[in-house]
Predict the 3D structure of the following.
Amino acid sequence: MLDRGRIKEEEAGEMRIVVNNVKEKQGAAVVAVKLATPLNANGNSSMAASFLRGGYGQEGYGVAEKASIHGSFALDGKQGYYAEGGKEAFLSTVNSMRKFFERRAERLGKPIKYVIKTGIGGQHTPFQGIADAFQVIDARTGKVVGEYELGKNFEVSMASVLRDLKADWDQVAVIPSSKSGSTDETMMVFVEIFYALLKNQAIKEGIDESRFADTVLATLHEVNFINGKEQPGKDLFKVDMDRFGTDNLITLIAKNAESLGISRAQIKGIFGRVLGNMFFETTDRVDQSRLSAFIRNSGLDTELGEDAPGFGAMFDNVGGRWTGDLHMMTFLAYHGLDAERYWEIRREGIAKFREGSHAANIIGNKILDEGVTDIALVVPDEFFWFGKSNEQNFNESIWQSGFANLVAIRQSQWDAQKKHYADDPRKLVINMSNLPISADSFNVFKFDTPDFSKLDNQGLADAFAELFTAFYGITTTVGDRLIDRALKEAGYTADDVDLNDVNNPATKIVQQNLYVRQPYVEFGKGFLEAGLKALQEREAAKPGAINKAFEGTEEENEGKKGIKQLAREKTLETNIESLNLPSNIANLNELAGVIREAREFAKTKGRKFVPLIYLEGDRFYDLRDYLISAGIEWVMQGTGDQHISYQQVLAQPQKYLPFIISFVPEKALPGKLAIGFAKGYLNNVSPHMVRDLFADASYRALTESRKDQGGLGLFLRIIDSDANIDILKKATDIAIKLSEGVDSFGETVLLENAMGAERTQAIAALQNGDELLKIAREPREHISGRKEKTEAMFKYYRGAMVAYQKALNIIEGKNGLGDIETQAEAGIGRVTNEVKNKIIAIAAVNILHKIGDGNGKEWFREWIAKQPDNVAVVIIAANIEEYKEVTDLQDVAYLQLVALPADLANSDISKAGIQDYQILKLNTEERNAFFFNLEVYKEGVNLGTRHLLDEKTVRAIASGV
């Protein structure tokens, strides 16, 4: 019998939701108009100053009077590409940049082939999203990339790209992109690239490139720091006549570089080639931008003339994650495209969005109407970075009560991720790809896009114009409604808001929920700055403190372990007391257990488990792709993603469980002097150290300052090595398989049996093999003597081989342990492949044959002394008699004996003290073939010479050493 009362109640509830949604949309429309209306302080200078204060805990918007707060959708006011004068500013900047590329090509006699934009967060993701798509269509013109990573060796990576392009160092253009001209990560990357360019231009002048680049940095440091204190922003890069006897920067550098034998004219030429190939995207005001101060305060703009950098204006009210138009300028200019056409498409789309008839309005409203909590943005693989730019734009903006989390997913990885979004109406899939994602299983919105493979450069630019409007519009739609929702919860309406009065109580609600701000990004960085300032104070008091904080032991570092020591010990921190996790990770099994327990804790608490990994370049991308393909829903990178989505984590910590993992290298990149770009507290601090301290600051911000709001997390420091990256991959695989009750064949197994005794022992053996292999790869400079070095190294190679073989022996005949068998066999393969290029085998008979000349063993000792220290030489004896003849050479070489099965009973073998691993057990046919090849080559055979030695024999020799 139907329960008509319940049905009517449900229908009434649904009706209330519909009515509330309608009212919320109406209020959001009022909010949208106010955010796109220019601010007016009505003559109150104090209020006008308040508008500009928009940082964490401040009352304003970070926007000047007479500009609209939301410049990306503003059609009125003094700032914004689509407001008053915006078109002229847009076209003028594109034209300036186009002339810049043309001027440099004419000046250098060759085109710019490699364009690098330095920027973090919003100054990177949209740019890289555009760059990747253009690279697919047009890779011939050149290479355009964004650079943002701390810990990357830029000189090495740039040299590699230039080799591929067959281009020279003066064909590199650099576009530092920072509205403030002082963002720490952007400026650190800029200094690394600036240093590399100075070095490689100095080479052309025939001078010591490192000393020259160091002299330039030392001069700039001297100019900008007095007694260790950094000059005020407005005075940066001013060369003080009273201090230096000149007010000209080039003259001062020439004076400091006199010992290098370089002239002032040569220095000016180097600066002309390096800075002349730069285009600064910044606020061109010396009191606000360090980039601007560098050129204007130093007088380099006058000194260099047409070789001075170009400048492109940025608007206060178009923040980093909304800067798709700014980044598109580079491509419109570099490829000679129709900038006005792009602008018109954007302008038309904005008008349509403001009318409420754009696809962005539909999707944004769908997200809130349906109470969506998670969004998968599925994109074509080549549009992954574009997807990341929208992940940033949405997550860094939408963190208010009622927020949703958006994750960009490559279409090639959708199969591994779709389980997280299936059969749940509160999880939305926005499908930008050509995958047929079924509406029967997913709440899916098919976002119609052109066939990108059929577009030319202009067509691609036009497509991006539409895409930026759409995705910025989605964020704006959701953001406006969440502001209206917050107003109503506080007892106000959108009509109560007066944005021209920051003291208005309803206005304060708007400001606290304003999606164009990024309060928690700066909030987290506060921990980093405090730590670095304290570190600089210790360095000033006790020189060497910075190095000890990274390299030192507890005794050397005031009772605190250095970062590297913590990483070597695989130190784990967490504020989740109920999990009872180890403080140090001892092996693969323990790491798998930590990941498993953390994921299951997150699942039971309704949190999303999020690895935040501090690792650079392709190493991170490979690891991220592996973890995502394994089934981890969301993997972020520090420090890049710290500016993308970590704000949402800090704002809503009760919804997430971050696992912060800092990979610390054994050999860190050296720190650079602070020279007026990166702030003074970064002076001489390695980029790798800064990266690790970012990880530490992220953990502290989450677990200390946001603890009362539900901030929980884990923080692991671990040495950056291939072995440890591999361990993390394997541990994740094991953790997921245990949690899901599925083994490597996809067969369901009982969870309680998944970690049986054999598996536990085999995994421990695998982990032991991985650790020994890692040690074997380490350099042996601290050991003297060739034999001692090779003995130490190959001791660990043999140990690794034995450990992997032990894992195989443990699981022999056990069903369902094929994953361990695969890993063990792969480990044996890795050891074999590594050692076979480090071992030379020589037949004992070839040494003994020379005895007739009276110099066989003397010849061998002279010959072996010429071999590299890290190469082992193995003397192979064909029988016990030969073995005895060469035993006096075992102080410089390894001895092995080939024994047929019948020989093994020979008591002389046991009497000679020959170990089992020194015996090569071959049959007669194998023995004859082996020695035929070995004896032909009088001075030995490298085990990597495949056509001479069969794989079985190679492995036998390798595993014996």
About this structure: Confidence is low (pLDDT under 50) at residues 742-755. Residues 457-489 form the longest helix (33 residues).
